[in-house]
Each structure stands twice: as C-alpha cells, then as structure tokens.
Amino acid sequence: xxxxxxxxxxxxxxxxxxxxxxxxxxxxxxxxxxxxxxxxxxxxxxxxxxxxxxxxxxxxxxxxxxxxxxxx
Length: 72
Ligand code: SF4
Description:
Radius of gyration: 12 Å
Structural class: alpha+beta
Number of strands: 4
CATH topology: Alpha-Beta Plaits
Largest sheet: 2 strands, antiparallel
Bound molecules: iron/sulfur cluster
Shape: globular
Number of helices: 3
Mean pLDDT: 95
Low-confidence stretches: none
Distance between the termini: 13 Å
Order of helices and strands: EHEEHEH
CATH architecture: 2-Layer Sandwich
C-alpha cells in the first residue's frame, strides 16, 4: 500500500499530477491529496504522477497493512 504526500512549498499548481491520476490528486491552487491510502488500482498512475511532477513535490510512502490498521 502507498500513501502520497505533496510538499506545499514545492508545488507550483501546474497540474500533471491531476491529469495523470485524478483519483488521488486534485488541484486547488496547489495539488491536494484526496485519499489517505492510494487505492491499489491507482498505485501505478500515482507513481507516474510523482515521476511527472516537475518540482519533485510528490513523495510516495509505502505503508504496511499493520500501520494502516493502527492508523499511523
Ligand atoms: Fe504540484 Fe507537482 Fe502536481 Fe505540478 S505536478 S501540481 S508541482 S504536485
């Protein structure tokens, strides 16, 4: 499982992340992450969005099922 984060200081609101993976990213001036845990079927697109981000604002974190159950 993965979780996506956007660094507000790096994001310029340019939009490729939303175009590539609208299930996870939404532009509201800058990019917002819509989900806590990225749905399995969207993981590949989420990683593509991170790769496409021109400022490196998107970080992908791998989350274990155990941590999800604990809410950490
Ligand atoms: Fe922000 Fe990167 Fe998305 Fe552009 S692609 S809106 S810089 S997170």
